[in-house]
Write a structure and sequence with these properties.
By secondary structure, the protein is α+β, with helices and mostly antiparallel strands. The chain has 6 helices and 8 strands, in the order αααββαββααββββ. Strands 5-6-7-8 form a 4-stranded antiparallel β-sheet. Strands 1-2 form a two-stranded antiparallel sheet. A two-stranded antiparallel sheet has the order 3-4. The radius of gyration is 19 Å and the shape is globular.
Length: 242
């Protein structure tokens, strides 16, 4: 790959050892890795976004390839130091997934029952903290327009406003945050963006600015500032370090 901003299918080449690790990512044995990697690996191989059914953009290809490369490196390192490799047999692999992506997207698993042959995202078990039933019920009863299959996190801030985060697209939501700001979060040691946002909103903001489009609130977490932009309906548009 000579230009990371212009990824083509020809760039996705693997040697024999990488093929072995890639097979583990696409067909994990009993929870060795989470299903998010199956999704993005298949998307990179086919060039199709499984959620929308549309071809991946160059930026989406680069984003997914970066995550896969990190996962392969983690597998290779574990195999080297573990001595026996990650085969799912004869190893001391823990029962819970040992690979976690640097993107909040790891909070998704495949929903193969979605209509029109498209694959959507649903939250896995273990995400109860971010998706409490009573708050999901409040969101349902609020009357706001939202996509239930896309909801990643729902909570209330200190002002008792109901806020929620959806996977979204490249303009708003988690996908937008990952594309624009994942590197900035990673530099501050933040790997699970939805969980970070959830915890951040439990604090009182140092400032809130209202505009015609919604609210911009600034928070301080561990001595560093973060801005969250959300609509008056509570939909989280973006969050990023400042």
């Amino acid at each position: 790959m000579t230009d990371p901003s212009k990824v083509t299918q020809a760039d996705i080449q693997f040697n024999e050892k990488y093929k072995e690790y890639l097979d583990i990512l696409t067909k994990p044995e009993k929870g060795l890795v989470d299903e998010y990697f199956q999704t993005i690996t298949e998307e990179v191989k086919t060039g199709i976004n499984q959620k929308t059914g549309k071809p991946l953009t160059d930026l989406e290809k680069a984003q997914r390839w970066s995550t896969i490369a990190s996962a392969i490196a983690a597998l290779a390192t574990g195999a080297y130091y573990g001595g026996k490799g990650f085969t799912g047999k004869g190893t001391n692999a823990p029962k819970t997934p040992t690979l976690k992506g640097n993107k909040g997207g790891k909070n998704y698993t495949l929903d193969r029952g979605k209509n029109k042959g498209k694959t959507g995202y649903k939250k896995p078990s273990g995400s109860d903290k971010l998706l409490k039933p009573n708050l999901l019920d409040d969101l349902l009863k609020s009357g706001v327009k939202y996509n239930p299959d896309d909801v990643v996190m729902v909570t209330k801030n200190t002002e008792k406003d109901l806020l929620w985060l959806e996977y979204g697209n490249n303009k708003a939501g988690l996908n937008h945050i990952e594309i624009r700001h994942a590197t900035d979060f990673f530099k501050r040691g933040i790997k699970n963006i939805p969980e970070f946002i959830y915890d951040m909103l439990k604090n009182k903001p140092i400032s809130i600015v209202e505009s015609s489009k919604g609210m911009n609130a600034t928070y301080i977490v561990n001595g560093k500032k973060y801005l969250i932009a959300y609509g008056k309906n509570g939909f989280i548009v973006s969050v990023y370090p400042i």
